[in-house]
Design a protein that fits this description.
Length: 511
């Protein structure tokens, strides 16, 4: 049996080289039974005899050994660290199995290099014993087999990250900056994982201190989750977003109504608008948006800006200068006036494609025309009004769940997850480019953007995460001094252009 053979090999090695190899004490079954993860019998055979190995200054601790368990996630998807520095991991959860595994090694933190060392714990331990027995142990830093590429088709549902400047962790697995690496059938071991982070500047980000990656094994170690925590950094590659289902309007309505029933202190809904009234609105209201505005006139969630779906509030009459800057009549529908601090306000609104009447992306821009004119910026809040409501519903559900488990105030948890309603507060930045770069592009929206005057800048939001900041002035090619008289939203907000007036004198960006 492999387990007994491994124990025999380790003991013989420790006896032969006592100054170099030390075995940690084994663990009793009573202790193993108290662990937050299941310990298969084959693994118990090893752990009863050997709790770990120290060799060449490196310690492999197979169990807690009197210290708190090194668990990186919930018990059903637990990741166990086999080295105190967390550089060797194995999955221990999932379906009942005869072994733990696979076993991964993690390279330098700033390189995000991962290697599948063995399909299971016992084969890895057997190989470790063989390598330690060699007079000159083999270098295992260069995997000998092909690369396993992340499988983005295995998408888990998108979640929303935390908020504010600095480090913000993913609240739930599945946000659009998450990659899933399928480890169920690696091409061989050791096996390198081909992967790169989404952000561009790593520890020295452009604004707010540091982007990072949180990695963990799930599904009993059969999948590796790589969660990018991008804090005020520019995106280096496109992302894939979860598709909003066709029945999303009905789902959003039912979930919000259920939340209002269960948590009346958190969620308040007002009566919706009749079709005869909707037909008199100054914009066309397609079927998906109509389902929502029929149901609710106003969505009030403690900790989230009030979403005003029907007209009538004074702030919805946008001042003429801002109205012109963001597109004019028939191209947007105001949803919320958002306060961030004592001096900053933003206007959250749905972009409307004037050619088709389709209600598109939900964005937020500075509510002061002078501020927006000086610093062209916005934040993408959602792919649609319905998607925004689903996000709000999810935030409430998660806050209520966490508050019940921890005794926290759910309102504070909701507030902490929804600060992305205002631009430039630490979300990842989508890059903009001079429109000239898109000349001759086969994509219709990019080609339309390329027709604007030279000096205009454009950015596509279709392959950006949600939320994302778009700060035009962050582009290296941006030049201060040119008059940019408006923002243009193409395709319902899928492409955004900061339009330049022709013939202006330019001066280089100085900040």
């Amino acid at each position: 049996m492999v387990a007994e053979a491994v124990v025999t090999a380790l003991r013989a090695l420790a006896e032969r080289r006592p100054d170099e190899v030390t075995l940690l004490d084994g663990l009793a079954d009573a202790e193993l039974d108290g662990w937050p993860v299941r310990v298969p019998e084959a693994v118990r055979v090893v752990l009863r005899a050997v709790g770990g190995v120290t060799a060449g200054g490196t310690t492999y601790a197979f169990g807690p050994s009197g210290r708190p368990p090194r668990i990186r996630s919930a018990a059903e998807d637990a990741t166990w660290a086999l080295r105190p520095d967390g550089k060797v991991l194995t999955g221990t959860g999932g379906e009942p199995a005869a072994d733990w595994g696979p076993v991964l090694t993690v390279g330098r933190a700033d390189e995000y290099a991962f290697t599948v060392e063995a399909p299971d714990f016992l084969p890895w331990l057997e190989d470790l014993a063989r390598r330690l027995a060699e007079e000159f142990p083999r270098d295992r830093t260069a995997p000998s087999s092909g690369a396993a590429v992340q499988d983005l088709r295995r998408a888990v549902r998108r979640g929303r990250r935390g908020s504010g400047r600095g480090t913000r962790r993913a609240r739930r697995q599945g946000h659009s900056l998450l990659d899933v690496v399928d480890l169920g059938n690696p091409p061989g071991c050791p096996c390198a994982i081909s992967w790169e982070p989404y952000f561009t500047l790593d520890g020295a980000t452009a604004d707010t201190g540091g982007s990072d990656v949180d990695y963990r094994l799930v599904a009993g170690g059969r999948a590796l989750l790589l969660e990018n925590d991008v804090s005020g950094d520019l995106l280096g590659r496109p992302v894939r977003r979860h598709r909003v289902p066709e029945d999303a309007p009905d789902v959003a309505v039912s979930r919000l109504r259920e939340l209002a029933r269960r948590f009346p202190r958190l969620v308040t809904l007002t009566e919706g608008t009749r079709d005869t009234e909707i037909d008199r609105w100054p914009v066309a209201v397609p079927a998906d948006a109509r389902t929502v505005v029929r149901a609710f006139g106003e969505v009030r969630v403690a900790g989230v800006p009030v979403l005003q779906l029907a007209p009538g509030e004074p702030w919805q009459r946008v001042e003429p200068a801002l109205h012109r800057l963001i597109g004019g009549d028939g191209t947007y529908w105001p949803l919320a006036r958002v306060s961030y601090g004592p001096y900053s306000t933003s206007l959250a609104h749905v972009r409307i494609d004037p050619a088709t009447g389709r209600w598109g992306y939900v964005v937020s821009v500075p509510a002061d025309a002078g501020e927006l004119r000086d610093e062209r910026e916005l934040v993408l809040l959602a792919e649609s009004l319905t998607a925004l409501l689903l996000d709000v519903a999810r935030i409430v559900e998660e806050a209520a769940e966490r508050a019940a488990a921890s005794g926290s105030d759910p309102v504070s948890l909701v507030l902490g997850a929804s600060r992305w309603f205002t631009p430039n507060t630490g979300e990842p930045w989508t890059r903009s480019v001079p429109v000239e770069e898109w000349t001759g592009d086969t994509d219709l929206l990019r080609a339309e953007a390329a027709a604007f005057p030279p000096g205009s800048h454009a950015a596509g939001l279709r392959d950006s995460p949600v939320p994302t900041d778009l700060c035009f002035y962050r582009a290296e090619s941006w030049r201060w001094g040119r008059t940019r008289d408006r923002l243009r939203f193409l395709g319902g907000g899928e492409v955004v252009v900061a339009v330049a007036e022709a013939g202006d004198q330019l001066r280089p960006k100085t900040c």
